[in-house]
Input
Amino acid sequence: MDKDGYFGADIAAHYDDDPAMTDPATVGPAVDFLADLAGQGAALEFAIGTGRIALPLAWRGVPLSGIELSQAMVGRMRQKPGGTAIAVTIGDITKVRVPGAYALVYLVYNTINNLTTQDMQVACFQNAADHLEPGGFFVVEVGVPALQRLPLGETLVPFDRSPAHWGIDEYDVVTQCFWSHHMNIRDGQARLNSIPFRYVWPSELDLMARLAGMQLAGRYANWHRAPLTAISQSHVSVWTKVADA
Output
């Protein structure tokens, strides 16, 4: 693994290839949601990546900065219109501190799971709180663990099959760790890429927030603020920094 972790040049080059990732019907509601929370304040994206959400949010007039571990992913963002105008600090979202106080810190698309220990996830929440002004918001978009799909004793959950991609998640229910295995087929050749994660329950996230001086302000099944149900596959959760924290 290189300095960019699991998101090096090969991944960055194709990260935006999935049309569903960049579809305005997907991106637009997320940007609307985040812009509403930011109001007239500034926003900070943890793991800004290729700017999939950050760039359209900045185009909405939200002052925006980012933190990102992978220079390759940031390099991809810099190639896009407006990509050179966003200040990005290269580093770890669990500990890198950037100047200023923000109305909004956000972390999207399961990235909290890239932090593969509970301690790292707790540190991420604390770092978010440290960047927020009193009353500011921290938003996390993350999948609900797919354990309801696991028969007793099984560990593998297929989640995608197409001519260009096969995807299988491999769970360890004892440690809450899982590996996401991706078989990508390009130009007639198959390449396996496996990335480790740690899944986390909504109630566990709420406790992490409380430890960092934040409290739950809302939880939804998606960016449209649909109600979270027992069969929701993901959630968007919002915590606010307590004024005297």
Q: What stands out?
A: Residues 22 and 52 are 7 Å apart (CA to CA). The mean pLDDT is 92. The chain has seven helices and eleven strands. The longest strand covers residues 132-143.
